[in-house]
Design the sequence.
């Protein structure tokens, strides 16, 4: 996907030309080989059950990748490993050429530029929608800095912009806990955007959404690719078909097939274990 | 806290403007600071309006408890850390000032030793333990009032939070902490007066502690400390750090995944709270005239949690209301029906949990939260 400067995305997301885009202290990944995320030979067992079994996966810079697979295929565990929640038994995970993610904590990985949206929408229910976005915003997140932090005009504008993107302008001062399920999903995507991550890991973004909401989510994710690398885990095959360029099928913690949706659907192994056709 | 401050405007002033309970509290404290000295010192004894020095000290004690309750509310109500050991920090602050007060006695002790406090002479000690050195200087003692509780909280919190101990397990550990200190301070060899603790104080900064004037001065100091402590906590809560901390309370994992070092935030608020508790203890000891290991008793820490629950947690002013109301009830009950106080306290806690989840301050009709 090509991003010409100042193009307008399908739902008004301005894809700005990016100079120094990340306002954190974290080191930026070396993307010289055009691969932003390397997952290599990762195995993780829980009580003898191999949730991930020699999993290898490469995400290109700016691509939109869909990961599908039956329950227990290891999709969520894969995200846990990438974001630092789970340490694998063997294997390596690299962010660009130089950043080893396995030695880093969750906040460090988040600061480095990998954002995550959970399967179950997790927002701060007692905070307003605005405050949720404010807290997610990329900035120096050390304790003393945050104690005296103030929003500047640019940051305010950015929050307003994201409020527009996720369609929650009218709910700005409402408590996030009072939002509908779909709105919470959107707010969480908005929080991801505020982090200004290089990689977005999105776990089942359209679960519980109406068809209209699903459609808007698809548009949003497509528009984000290019500027960000987006990895979407999803069960909804129609949704995957509508956004996917490249699909990875996981099965028993291992990559079963990879390719376009058509290629994957015609793969005999995939037909057997997953699509059941 | 749904008001958003405009760019360039401070955090504190809008927060206080939106904080009706805090305004009432600060106004009441101001009135108390003016009225109590007048009614105690200027209206003659025997007059109907005279306020006895005993009552002044009693109120002063309540306000020390109120400051302790704010410290507990800060970590429990806003960060979800249920501390059942906060009186450990309170008592350590009290011991720090108690050591200063002991050194002030000088040769006027029973044994007349100019350096050693009586209990050391009694134990046949010949020189001052190293940790008593310098405690005859008021600024050193003041520093220790915040430093010792702060360091203990730092060590304990660092170990507990980085191991991701949370919930009831953490609460049990805080109980163990205060219980361990209780046992340690009971021992004579610790050098803090053992069972009897530190008492028979005479002067603070050269002023006789027993005079009504000094009692009023201590009361006013407590009022100021409570007001400043309240405003400080309100600032912390209204800052973005306050919102992060509340985020940790509601969705700890989310906070971590948007890039906050949750452990550092917990540690910061925990240490801050412990220091506040230390200050409360330091104000308490000169007013009640004694500090002994009984202050470390686990039950005391649980009582603080009850004050906060009864008053209304997560509001700060509710903690103050709870501390004053429950302790006033305690004073009355333990005089009138001493044997049923603990039952009454238990009933109060159960009742507040069942019928007043937002505490006493939750009964006040909510004003419309300003939105725009």
Sequence:
């Amino acid at each position: 996907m090509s991003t010409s400067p100042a193009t307008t995305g399908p739902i008004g997301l301005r894809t700005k030309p990016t100079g120094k885009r990340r306002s954190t202290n974290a080191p930026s990944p070396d993307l010289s080989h055009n691969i932003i995320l390397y997952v290599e030979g990762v195995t993780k067992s829980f009580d003898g059950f191999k949730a991930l079994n020699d999993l290898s996966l490469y995400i290109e810079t700016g691509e939109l990748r869909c990961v599908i697979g039956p329950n227990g295929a290891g999709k969520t565990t894969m995200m846990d490993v990438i974001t630092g929640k789970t340490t694998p038994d063997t294997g390596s995970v690299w962010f660009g050429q130089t950043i080893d993610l396995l030695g880093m904590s969750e906040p460090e990985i988040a600061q480095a530029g990998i954002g995550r949206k959970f399967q179950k929408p997790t927002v701060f229910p007692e905070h307003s929608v605005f405050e949720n976005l404010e807290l997610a915003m990329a900035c120096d997140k050390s304790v003393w800095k945050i104690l005296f932090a103030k929003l500047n005009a640019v940051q305010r504008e950015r929050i307003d912009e994201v409020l527009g993107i996720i369609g929650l302008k009218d709910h700005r001062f409402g408590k996030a806990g009072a939002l509908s399920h779909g709105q919470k999903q959107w707010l969480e995507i908005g929080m991801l955007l505020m982090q200004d991550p290089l990689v977005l890991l999105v776990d089942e973004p359209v679960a519980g959404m109406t068809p209209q909401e699903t459609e808007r989510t698809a548009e949003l994710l497509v528009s984000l690719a290019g500027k960000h690398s987006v990895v979407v885990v999803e069960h909804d095959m129609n949704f995957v078909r509508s956004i996917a360029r490249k699909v990875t099928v996981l099965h028993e913690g291992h990559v079963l097939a990879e390719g376009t949706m058509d290629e994957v659907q015609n793969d005999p192994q995939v037909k057997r274990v997953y699509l059941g056709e | 806290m749904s008001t958003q401050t405009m760019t360039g405007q401070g955090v504190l002033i809008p927060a206080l403007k939106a904080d009706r309970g805090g305004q009432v509290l600060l106004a009441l404290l101001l009135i108390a600071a003016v009225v109590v000295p007048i009614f105690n010192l200027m209206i003659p004894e025997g007059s109907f309006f005279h306020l006895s020095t005993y009552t002044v000290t009693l109120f002063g004690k309540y306000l020390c408890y109120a400051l302790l309750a704010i410290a507990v509310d800060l970590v429990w109500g806003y960060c979800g850390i249920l501390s059942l050991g906060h009186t450990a920090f309170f008592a350590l602050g009290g011991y720090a000032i108690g050591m200063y007060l002991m050194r002030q006695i000088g040769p006027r002790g029973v044994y007349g030793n100019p350096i050693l406090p009586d209990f050391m002479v009694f134990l046949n000690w010949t020189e001052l333990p190293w940790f008593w050195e310098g405690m005859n200087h008021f600024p050193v003692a003041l520093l220790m009032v915040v430093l010792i509780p702060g360091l203990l909280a730092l060590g304990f919190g660092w170990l507990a939070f980085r191991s991701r101990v949370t919930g009831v397990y953490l609460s049990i550990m805080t109980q163990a902490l205060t219980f361990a200190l209780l046992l340690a301070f009971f021992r004579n060899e610790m050098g803090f007066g053992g069972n009897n603790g530190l008492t028979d104080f005479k002067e603070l900064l050269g002023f006789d502690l027993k005079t009504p004037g000094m009692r009023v001065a201590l009361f006013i100091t407590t009022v100021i400390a409570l007001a400043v402590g309240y405003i400080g906590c309100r600032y912390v809560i209204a800052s973005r750090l306050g919102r992060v901390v509340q985020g940790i309370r509601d969705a700890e994992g989310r906070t971590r995944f948007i890039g906050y070092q949750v452990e550092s935030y917990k540690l910061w608020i925990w240490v801050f709270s412990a220091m506040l508790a230390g200050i409360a203890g330091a104000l308490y000891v000169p007013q009640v005239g004694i500090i002994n290991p009984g202050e470390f008793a686990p039950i005391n820490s649980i009582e603080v949690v009850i004050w906060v629950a009864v008053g209304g947690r997560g509001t700060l002013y509710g903690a103050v209301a709870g501390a004053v109301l429950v302790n006033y009830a305690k004073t009355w009950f333990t005089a009138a029906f001493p044997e049923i106080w603990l039952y009454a306290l238990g009933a109060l806690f159960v009742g507040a949990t069942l019928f007043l989840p937002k505490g006493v301050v939750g009964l006040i009709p909510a004003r419309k939260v300003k939105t725009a």
